[in-house]
Structures are given as C-alpha cells and as structure tokens.
Give the backbone structure.
Amino acid sequence: MSVDTVEKRYIISDAAKIIDVESHVLRYWEEELEIEIPRNEMQHRYYTDYYIELFKKVKELKENGFQLKAIKMLLPDLMSDKPDSNVDELIRKVGETTLSEKEEKTDEISQVGEIESQKTSDFGNKMEQFQMIISEAVSSALKENTTSLGRDVSDMVSDHVIKEMDYMLQLKEQREEERFRKLDATIRSCQVNNKSKKKRGLIGKFKK
C-alpha cells in the first residue's frame, strides 16, 4: 500500500494514543524493526494512517506472543497489499510453519539420539574388552613376579621399620640425657645451698 502524501499527519503522541501504546514504545519498535518514519521540514516524525495501521498489526502480533525479531521477518507481508497480509492469516501461517519445523526437528533429534545411543553402546563394549585385557595382563604379571614382588615389599618394610626404630631410640636417648642433665643440675643446686647453710651456721657459732 503506497503512502498517500495528502493523508492526515499525526505527531508521535497522537499516533501512540491511537495505537494505544506509549510514545517510547512506538520509537523502540521503529528502531528494532528498522521502519523509516517520514519526517517533516523540521525533521519531526509524522505518522499517516498507513503507519498507524502497520503498528496496530505489530501490536496485535506482540499480544499474540511474537517477539520483535519474528515480527521483523514478517514485516514485508505486513507492509504489502496481499490478501493474506492480515494478522490472523499470518499467525496461522507461522503456526503451521512452526509445527512443521518442530516435527522435523523432533525427527532429527530422535535420529541423533539413536546414533548417539549406538555410539555409547559400542564405546561401552570396547571399554569392557579393554578392561578385561588389562585385568588379564596385570594378573599374569603378578603371578610371574609374586616371589620377586614379595621380596621387594619385605625389604622395603624392613628398611622402614629399622629406620623408625632408630629414630625412636635416638629420641629416647635424647630425652634420657635431658632428664639426667636436669637431675644433675638440681642435685648440684641442693649441694650448693647446703654448703651455704653450713657456712652460715659455723659463722654464727664463732660469733657467739
């Protein structure tokens, strides 16, 4: 539908009231849908009946759950003079297309699921075979080296026990030495104190 230059012009606030949305919503739709609104000599937006009807369709699609990205794809149909450019017809067409796409997607997902399931099963079987081979190899190696392995383990344990006993004996000796040193210091201290007392006693007798 071509824009008639003699049609009545509406400023954005009046157009918003007619469409029943806020002015900022109308500006947002224009930007997101990339709809070029005519401007007057002062570079102010103006809306004709054509654009008001177009935004009414946009509003109706929004109320039916369509996002602006989807509406932008439908914009050529909304702006055309085709009989099927009305909103109800577009919603029906989109619904049929969406249902068909969903069915195709479901089939694809089902096929992919079957393939992945088969891959998982094959992988599981290979893992079981691999584990069996490893288990047999380890078991065989253990049987062949049981004596040698036992001897190595015994040597390792013996070395460890000897080192631990050495450490414990050294620690015990250190503690005993420390205890004797403290005891010797105590005895010496007592002897010094006794000598001092005796000296004081003798001095006291001489004075008398």
